[in-house]
Amino acid sequence: MGLTMIEKILANHSSKDVVIPGEIIDIGIDIRAARDFGGPNVVKNLINNNLEIDDISKTFFTLDCYPTTSDPKYATSQQYCRVYAREKGIKVYDVNSGIGTHLVIDKGLVTPGCTFISTDSHANILGSIGAFGQGMGDKDIAAAWASGKSWFKVPKSVKLTFKGKRPKNIYAKDIVLNLLNKFGANTLLGYAVELYGDEDEKLSLDERITISSMATEMGAIIVLIPPSDEVMKYCETRSGKKLTKIEADKNAIYDQELEIDISKFKPMVSRPGHPDDSVNIDDVFQTKIDSGFVGSCTNGRIEDMREVAKILKGRKIAPGVVLKIVPSTDEVWNKCLEEGIINIFKSAGALVGNAGCAGCAAGQIGQNGPGEVTISTGNRNFVGKQGKGEVYLGSPAEVAASTVAGYITTPDRIPEKPVEFKTTGKTKKAEIPKKDKTILEKSTVTEGKVWLINKDDIDTDMIFHNRYLTITDIAEMGQYTFDNLEGWEDFAQKAEHGDIVITGKNFGAGSSRQQAVDCFKSLGVQIILAESFGAIYERNAINAAFPILTYNNIDELKLKQRDKVKVDIENGIIENLENGKKAEINKFFDVQMEIYKRDGLLS
Fold first, then answer.
1. Helix (H) or strand (E) holding 445
2. Which strand (E) or helix (H) includes residue 296?
3. Using CA atoms, how far apart are residues 551 and 454, in angstroms rounded to an integer?
4. If you placed Cys at 350, which of 104, 269, 331, 345 could pair as Cys (CB 3.0 to 4.6 Å)?
């Protein structure tokens, strides 16, 4: 039986020659990293459980979320990681280095066919070089640092082939936004996607990084792009090793094989709120903007910087508009300096920041305020993710052109004079009440009143916003649950001890933050039932011994808001105690039950 790329990589890092979708295996992790976001909790988990590090040479800190260190809490987190690193001899890529997922490629630490994990939900960016990368929560990372391994469910694979010729005005960001337009946020949920085709083979490494970085936004485990000769040469040069190209077997079995005509792709932007709400840029043409942002792990590479410089050279940013630029790594920053690109940026009136994650991580320049309209090269524009304003997603070329024009446009439609600027919006400050809750004792059969939240794609910023990420005490987390979910901002005040949440598809999409699980434990919520969960969120809940279950159809229960139900997690049964109606749900799988019974992955 032939293996897909993901199956081959996972099999090569397990004790098995062949792995099949749905199978749970232990895999060896070649490189394990933690960031300033999540890093302190990784350390706490290791210390509190008396765990030592398996292999220092494979273990790293990447302090990339907040390279300006202007926030005292982030500075505290970074220093906490540094001190632990000094004691253990761990290599730190500090605040002057750049984005960790880029560094492991550029430093030759991860090469095609390798496995990599980080507290970064975009660790699957490593699919750009044909490697396996996954974002994981702090318990997962701590366990891998201690054992060198991690359990993983082998995903199903989709083979996606581009047909036709790529139009000249289509950038890598346009490619991935066209894919998001077709597949949305959950059609590919839990799949490993492989890209093929003549145009795919021509993609540069920087373009591949842009495409693979948004696998998370499509709900996919990873987007794997078979390495080209150019990519292999790059990885060999950076690693100093002779490498073997990783390829799927010719008789590999895919769950789906799809073809898409790339010649029909259009320049795209995502409208505020959802990356998958991507439309032809003509649909939002001339939308007035207040600011632009170029950077993030999706579009902070040197090719992106050169494209922006080509458009800005000899031009000025529109009056009243702010353009913020953050290169992905210090190497890219220095290349910009050497090539005169920094001078072009500054002459045009742009603000250039330290290399790092920037706006989409709430870590430095790139956030916006209420009423502010931003066009960004980031990968996420969830409500509140990059600030309190509205965020459109586009390519670096579109962002540069738009900030010169003063409105959303393409490079070939920059007006002779920018449009007039008008301010909008008022700042509101919400009061956040505090409420003490105790954590309910576990049982395989539980009863509680339901909250029916009929929404799909509830992301982690809606569950537990990134402005609270410096909170590491579970007791403090509950009060902030859902305060960024429209219509449910007062959930924490209304929730009762022992409640059960029932929701839709792709619950927990987005970030790898553990707080999005722990806030429910803090609040006293017993169980979350959903049609499906984001891949990282599912792992975090299981590893925290927090019961989550999936269902296919529970309409027969005739549930109403605040009905009392009984849930049997071992046998997969839910009963509406108000009318006696029962339905089957998907019961705990073995690993989940094992971790649940021992009260967590690290217990």
1. strand 445-453
2. none
3. 14
4. 345
